[in-house]
Amino acid sequence: FVKTGGLADVAAALPVQLREMGADIRVVLPLYAKIKAQFGMHMRHECDFNIKLGWRNQYCGVESLVQRGITYYFIDNEYYFGRDYIYGVFNCDEAERFGFFSRAVMDLLPLLDRVPDVIHCNDWQTALVPIYRQDLAGRWDALRSIRTVFTIHNVEYQGKFGPETVEDLFGLDRGWYEDGTLQMDGCVNLMKGAMLCADAVTTVSPTYARQLHQSAYAEGMESVVQRCGEKFTGIVNGIDTAVFDPATDPELTAHFSAQRLRGKADCKKALQKELGLQVQSDVPLLSVVSRLVGHKGIDLICESLDVVMQTGCQLVILGSGDGQYEDFFRYAENRYKGRLCAYIGYNEALAHRIYAGSDLFLMPSRSEPCGLSQMIAMRYGAVPIVRQTGGLADTVRSCQLGQEDGNGFVFADYSAFDMQYVISQAVNLYRTDIHRFRQVQKRGMTDDFSWDASAGAYESLYQHITGQTRSTK
Ligand code: GLC
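That is the input. Now the predicted structure with alpha-D-glucopyranose docked in place:
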């Protein structure tokens, strides 16, 4: 319904997969203006009530929509969600908006036809749910059987607010702060609270889960991660293989698969034309589809630009983010006219065509909880060049040094020199041994990145914390 990053892909695909496995699953999300404009007229008004947020008393409507057998509940409040951004743009009342949302989820529970066994929350915006569940369970019987899961999609965004929010906004006793559950370094940290209150805490890849025990990656949360002990695990994301399928993707000029690669050459040609690059089939085309922010390793790309261009490849960048990077790539496009295209902005359809038309895909992230684009790239036959971190380490296997099972190129240290070195290795392989290049490419195209295994892991987790198996329903 709405998207700013990989979380949207997960929120769209995981419920569908769980439902196919037999779960009764409902999804609750805010009725953002963008969703209302596009889907509002198809929604059903379920109910409305008022919500108390400290001294505030706010209207809350619940609208619903059924898609692919799943009921979606949209929390409606014009004042909080009728804006032209989703979150993170202005930080002035984020605590209030998502405090309201989390409270709405709790107040919706008694109105549902059944009490859920598990509430699975994602990122700090929903972190208050496990906290409220804990807070209210003492006097609200129905809540006692509910188990909560909290998933961290990126530890950088923790939901830090002033101590006054505890009572004034969230309507919680100050004890929650004083006893250290919500307190971290002198302010409220909602992620910490959720990690301590939830029955299980997960993040989106096993490597990232291990990294979060270390201060170099955990953004100050390592001690909380350690306190979570066994209840903290990593489950790698999948991708929606029905949506990301080069054999059927409606956005592409031609279709292809690992068995019939011919259409990929047509996609490359069409992409070069569309982006104003020289139409040359034998020049390796390297692409980047990414938010242009620090942790994605964009500074390494900027630093290495001339060296990368000297390999003779073409380069395509799609994304938006920090102004300094946007300017850098706009300028670079002028310098390398016909060989470099920088599309500043986001365009989902074009992203599909870039994956399909590229030979190589670059993702040198400084940290990467999971990362979805490297998996999409592989499925479309763009061989990934990644830094060995987080989910990148769990999905890309190196083909260097004679490793026979590799599906991409990997470098370990966060260094421009190391990245340049593997890029030149990749370009060389393409130029001098296309047969072996195709093997690496086909391995990535046929690897299983579907949600099957990951959704199975979530189901086992739900079973573990509830002590139930599916057959008891
Ligand atoms: C965040 C992470 C990304 C992950 C996505 C979905 O956007 O930065 O690595 O793939 O969430 O879990």
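DSSP finds 20 helices and 17 strands in the chain.
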